[in-house]
Amino acid sequence: MLVDLYAKLDQGVPIADEDALVIEFVFSDPVAPDILAARLSDALGGVDVDVNPVFEAGPDRYHFARFAGITGQGQEAVAFEFARALRPVAKADEANPVLADSLIGAAAVGAADTESLSGACSTSRDDSLPWGWVHPRIGTLAAWGHTRGAGSTVAVIDTGHSTHQELNGSIRQQGQRNFVEGGSDASDRFSSGILKHPGHGTLVCSVIASRGTVDQNGDVTSGGGITGAAPEAMILPIRAIKSVINFTQTTIPSAIAHAINEGADVIAMALGGPTRVASTERALRIAVERGLVVVCAAGNCWPRVVFPAAYASQGLCTAVAALNPDLSPWAKTGSGPEVTIANFGVNVWGAAKNKASDPDHGIRPAQGTTLATSLTAGAAALWVAHHGGRTALRHKAAQAGTTVQAMFVHCLTQGIIPPSVWGGAGAYGAGLIDANRLLACPFPTGTEAPAPAAPGPTGTAPTLAVLQSHLAGHAPDAAADLAPDLAEYASELIWLSHRAQARERAAQTTETETFSGLDVASPGLADKLLARPALRAALRRP
Description:
Elements: H1 2-9, E1 21-31, H2 33-43, E2 50-53, E3 60-67, H3 76-90, E4 94-97, H4 105-108, H5 114-120, H6 134-138, H7 140-143, E5 153-158, E6 177-178, H8 200-209, E7 212-214, E8 220-223, E9 234-239, H9 252-261, E10 266-269, H10 278-289, E11 293-297, E12 318-323, E13 341-344, E14 346-351, E15 363-367, H11 369-386, H12 390-400, H13 404-413, H14 435-440, H15 463-472, H16 476-480, H17 490-510, H18 523-529, H19 533-538
């Protein structure tokens, strides 16, 4: 069976290394990578398998196995089936494909061309607003009376950074890391082509920590063209992806671990997708244990909150949704009970440099949860600086029996009222961020801001529990359909749930038949769904 499944995944054409199928293996006890590689190779008749431990140089509980020459793209059902067949061979607790995917949901549901992709996840640009209009409205202008973020460091896990006047003085040189090409130079390589997004990291860095000031009208009065939310914080750039529009999470756990080791106070991740990767969850747990604040994008075009932001429901990060300037929810934002807070994500000004030849002074209004996340990460840097740094906050959290992340979320949401334009909807978090209120909030007790629940024996929650959480707030009837016999299919069900919702939203947005149709479920899962009508309905399957 394994050899047959491998043959199905072999398309008979050369596969680029970045497109090769990767499967994550999770163990209760550490396993040496050479032992896992031998188990897999023997089961496949001598196929060479490249196994890399995620966190440790030797035995580890998390491994990525790369199968050069085959890909799961376009045949995800077979990839899930292949991973399930390999799990007992590997003697692993879990085995799941790490699928190439996107913060832009339209890419995942089959946009026929880049024009369709752009149209599915964008709204009209408006250049009329002052370059710093957001700051009087989200409390950062008032918060700067207490701190401008000096002493705090924000690790930006993204495409890297570039030369740009909006980043002058904000980029930390020591401790940079490049998980794409390797080495310690985290500068953006401006990878170009279809479904690439060069310059994204520069945009994020600028919205967090561009130097400058603004007045009460939102006009920039000093510095460059714009002002970041924490204009005296430092940025630690970590190049982990070529593009937010097409990436896998294989570098994300290591990037988080590097940010922790380099002493970052805040981690900002304006990226995500619908694939559950256990080692990303593990890395977030370590970050929270070490006292970091983690801020993640709820997602663009995916209607439901993507990973890693979806881990906010476990207390492992802050999930941020995007708003229009009139406080209404941005039509393309991810939403749901996992969302912590909302911030402006439309026509927010930031650095614009998308190729090496672009000038170093360009700015433009941009849109998406990227902007909302960056502004919120800057506010987190202000909060950390205001309270004396991560070490001091970690001590306060230990005294209260909780985590710095939990204290931050409590202070971020305490006293916030959802805007009336939401009409009572609770899918966009507590309301619009108020950075000044955040700084003034008294520290909570552990009862008010509980620490995350202890993980399972692998160091992470079982994927079935992650699926249960995913469905509980979106489709309670479907959640009731879950049972232990679906544990092997949990990762595939999460994938199908996100894809079904993205297809539905894309079809409504573009009125294009490109987005109609169903993703194929693996045969075993299809059989399981026959007796589960509520779960089928949640997956938009007949």
